[in-house]
Design goal:
single chain; alpha+beta; BirA Bifunctional Protein, domain 2; Rossmann fold; 2 domains; 9-stranded mixed beta sheet; 5-stranded mixed beta sheet; 13 helices; binds 5'-O-(N-(L-cysteinyl)-sulfamoyl)adenosine
């Protein structure tokens, strides 16, 4: 992409309404525009990040055996009356009436709809287990939307739903999602800690929240800090094998959110030097709730014994849009965002310090072609902005690499290469710089 043709409305001033770094930086870097309280337009740079996050979530879901579909945002009220949640959900649900006076709602989650789809087609244990997911916009009329995409009203969620014949097999599905979540967040450069959690309006009695530690997080958490050093399962983890040892390893060290914190247990199980009290951002939550929806909604399957029974279900959410903010909370400095490579909107920035200078233009084109061919998705700053402004914008938008090309260096056969994270610059030949970026 050439910056002269792109749409990157960076802000010089820090917007007054933004209270936390990620919100501030997303507005300043031209990623996001607020359209109403808790409702945002994703501008091109933000959209690229959102798509990268979404794709990592998708790849790990697919790897774990889940199957993607797409359900609508609008749902019939009658569907929610079947489970009893239409009245229970209260003011958080956005209720809509169509021209025929039919009651609809903008989905805050999809347990009812997926159960309705499942029961229409699946009737035998032979078709189990199944895990279906989608990545779709949700609406929750939060009382206090705040912190930008962290607590929005409209937000993008990945929600998966598992269906099993019995509890034991349901537990295996839960474990698969647990492991997939460990991998998903690690791939984005995050340390997300699974913690015992409340189940709230989703229900059930087995649940874990995945929490990224950050000072600005909304949840207070208590954990054994050794959990931060546990190994992440590799890409070759066998999802069809026994995952229980991995779950046991991750859940044997104490980790709980404030809502379910058990002080006595915490102090009994965690040596004083290992205790950690912190704040965190919930980036995902997994639930196992058995027949809570399948029973009232009559989603039954015939077992091998010929007896019909309500299917055992779990649901598994990831806050895709919240993750874009959570990654920034975990990775920024005073100058701006520091994107981990896998979610960076562009892999490298090329700064042409003197557009119009034949040597600078030629070197930039060479770099642009080479990095594009290597799949690095470069952003070439070919604008007339002065060098100081170009450096500030590149630091603000946080691309992992900056390739700085100016007339003085080129006269000596060199360019400068900066890795955004540590911030140091190296002087080297154009070929070596390209080599360093493409690895
Ligand atoms: N049906 C279940 C799982 S599929 C469910 O809705 N779970 S949830 O309520 O925990 O939401 C899943 C994830 O969505 C949360 O972990 C969080 O990361 C994200 N999320 C929830 N509410 C918001 C919100 N208001 N703004 C941004 N992200 C949110």
């Amino acid at each position: 992409m050439r910056l002269s043709r792109y749409f990157l409305p960076v802000l010089k001033q820090t917007p007054a309404e933004a209270q936390i770094p990620s919100h501030r930086l997303m507005l300043r870097a031209g990623m996001l525009r607020q359209e109403a309280a808790g409702i945002y337009a994703w501008l091109p740079l933000g959209h690229r990040v959102l798509k990268k996050v979404e794709q990592i979530v998708r790849e790990e879901m697919d790897r774990a055996g889940a199957i993607e579909l797409l359900m609508p945002t609008l749902q019939l009220a009658d569907l929610w009356r079947e489970s009893g949640r239409y009245d229970d959900y209260g003011k958080e649900m956005l209720r809509i009436t169509d021209r025929h006076d039919r009651e609809l709602l903008f989905g805050p989650t999809n347990e009812e709809m997926i159960t309705e789809i499942f029961r229409a087609y699946v009737h035998s244990y032979k078709d189990l287990p199944k895990n279906l997911y989608h990545i779709q916009w949700k609406f929750r009329d939060e009382q206090r939307p705040r912190f930008g995409v962290m607590r929005g009203r409209e937000f993008l969620m990945k929600d998966a739903y598992s269906f099993d014949l019995d509890e034991e097999s349901g537990r295996k599905s839960y474990n698969q999602m647990f492991v997939a979540y460990l991998r998903t967040f690690a791939r984005m450069g995050l340390k997300a800690i699974p913690m015992k959690a409340e189940t709230g309006p989703i229900g059930g009695d087995l649940s874990h929240e995945f929490i990224v530690l950050a000072e600005t997080g909304e949840s207070a958490v208590f954990c054994d800090k050794r959990v931060l050093d546990l190994p992440i399962p590799g890409f070759d983890v066998d999802y069809r094998g026994d995952l229980q040892p991995i779950i046991d390893q991750w859940t044997s060290l104490y980790a709980a959110t404030e809502d379910v914190h058990d002080v006595a247990r915490y102090e009994r199980e965690t040596a004083p030097e290992n205790r950690m009290t912190a704040r965190g951002i919930e980036v995902g939550q997994v639930f196992f709730f058995g027949d809570k929806y399948s029973k009232p909604m009559k989603a039954t399957v015939t077992g091998p014994d010929g007896v019909d029974r309500a299917v055992q279900m779990g649901s598994y959410g990831v806050g895709v849009s919240r993750l874009a903010g959570a990654i920034i909370e975990a990775s920024h400095d005073d100058d701006g965002i520091i994107w981990p490579d896998p979610v960076a909107p562009f892999g490298a920035g090329i700064l042409n310090l003197k557009p119009g200078d034949a040597a600078c233009d030629a070197a930039c084109e060479t770099a642009y072609a080479a990095l594009s061919a290597a799949g690095k998705e470069p952003l070439l700053d070919d604008t007339d902005e002065r060098p100081g402004g170009k450096f500030a914008t590149m630091d603000l938008i946080g691309l992992p690499w900056q390739l700085i090309i100016g007339p003085r260096g080129l006269a000596e056969g060199t360019v400068e290469l900066k890795r955004r994270a540590p911030g140091e610059r190296k002087t080297l030949s154009l070929e070596s710089a390209i080599q360093a970026i493409t690895g």
